[in-house]
Amino acid sequence: MDPTLKSKTISKLKEGVSSFSPRMQVVAKYILDNPADFGLDYVRDTARKAGVSTFTLVRLAEKIGFDSFEEFREPFRHALVSTTELQERPNWIDGLYEKGEAGQVQAEAALNTLSNTQRSLERQTPELLDEIVTLLLSANTTFVTAVRASYSMAFYFHYVGRMALPSLELIPRHMGSAVDELTRAKPGDAVIAITLTPYSRETVEACKFAQERGAKLILITDSDIISPGLKPDFLLTVSSNSTHHFACYSGAIAVLEALLSLLMKRGGVDAAERITSYEEARIAQNAYVTIAKKQ
């Protein structure tokens, strides 16, 4: 079997999703989000999990050039690697399971956090991250946007990143909307948008608005498809599996840290001087708590 067939199939799903029927779009998103399950499950199981009929699965297979569902699924089965187990599980986690309910919950959360981090980082390539940082360094203005819980990640990236890149702007600010701020966007600008399940309508609309105005879009999210009409210039897909009701952000934070590290490195002497200037200003304003040494 052609080892690249899975990648080719994924590319066909991404490229064709906007022309698929609504039910086929649901299936395409399910497969892209759950490639391991798709490789393992029979047609009825996949249909049940995706919330569609088996007929829709067969029709999608035919739509992208396969003769049957089994032929469609085979490259995923052939290339199957676990997307749920952490490699080299730390020994200290096993000890938590022996400490009652709280220990079990902590162990599961710890495994999930480590697994999300590992899977998110291994999905990125140095070439992609370097291309993104090159764009950020050359952009006139880079807007960073998110809402609700994701806003905390946007705030952190902006807070640290502006020391290396003064052109970063966090939006929305105060009680405004991102679109209000993006009326200034134009060719030569960039937008970093962050949204995880469930995807924010405000953020998706801001992304489309920015692209209409000619800005380049860097999207950080947990699916290759969050809105059929949205095609980012750069996509950083992270894992957000969770042991509770809401998305886990450890994977997204890990990828943001990788971007920040590269941004600081590429920022060179200028970035280092700005960081020093920030630190000196904070010290002068007595921003940090200090403990006097005993004499």
Task: Report what the structure shows.
This protein is α/β, with parallel strands linked by helices and 295 residues long. It is built from 13 helices and five strands. The protein has a five-stranded parallel β-sheet with strand order 2-1-3-4-5, with helices on both faces. Strand 3 (190-194), helix 12 and strand 4 form a beta-alpha-beta unit. Helix 8 (100-122) packs across helix 13.
Question: How many structural domains?
Answer: 3
In order across it, which strands form the biggest sheet? 2-1-3-4-5
Radius of gyration: 22 Å
* Residue-averaged pLDDT: 89
CATH topology of the largest domain: Rossmann fold
Tell me the number of helical segments per DSSP (H or I, 4 or more residues long): 13
Q: Characterize the main sheet.
A: 5 strands, parallel
Low-confidence stretches: none
Strand content: 5-15%
Which CATH top level class of the largest domain fits? Alpha Beta
CATH architecture of the largest domain: 3-Layer(aba) Sandwich
Counting DSSP E segments of at least 2 residues, the number of strands comes to: 5
* Shape label: globular
- What name goes with the CATH superfamily of the largest domain? Glucose-6-phosphate isomerase like protein, domain 1
Q: Structural class of the helices, strands and pairings?
A: alpha/beta
Overall helicity: 55-70%
Gap from first CA to last CA: 74 Å
